[in-house]
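Allow me, if you will, to draw on your knowledge of protein folds for a short while. The matter concerns a single protein, recorded as an amino acid sequence and a row of backbone structure tokens. Could you please explain, in whatever detail you think fit, how the structure tokens follow from the sequence? I remain grateful for any guidance, and I place the record below:

…
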Amino acid sequence: MYKVYELGEFSEKILFTLLAYQKVMSHPKGILLYPAIMDRLEFDKRLVKRYYANKKINYALSKLKKKGYINIYKTDKRRFNVSFTSKTFEFIKLKHISENAKSYKKMRNYKRILFFDIPERERKKRDSFRYFLKILGFNEIQKSVFVSELDNYDDLKSIIDFLEIGIYVETGIYKKD
């Protein structure tokens, strides 16, 4: 869905499971990570062999770590502590932007205009940004020019910061005729 930080459905479930256990994760002795995740995700023991499930969880955890969403610290042979990076909380915020989009208020007699020129080497970010602009209620005038009547600046700023494209984006407000 979000091309830049696409995790996959299973990795997302793992991330949200870890967030649900956030207070437990900070235990000084650490936790047994795999049983906690297995219990939370409720694997059907008849359909999924334990080895396969552990391998799948391990892959998802390494993917989350590689993409910078979590840090995993080993406390002893079988116990781990997990900490979340700021990228995790930005990801969660962006997941909920589409729900907020329905509650934006219109600006009276004003419109927000947005220009961007994101280089080709950052195509994934550019495509994701266009996708988010449409969610935020922007109308496409040209490929890199969008206009909106909605007051959505806070969420727009969050997206720009998360994608790290602030130097390529200009926005302003103009009065309608």
In short: DSSP finds eight helices and seven strands in the chain.
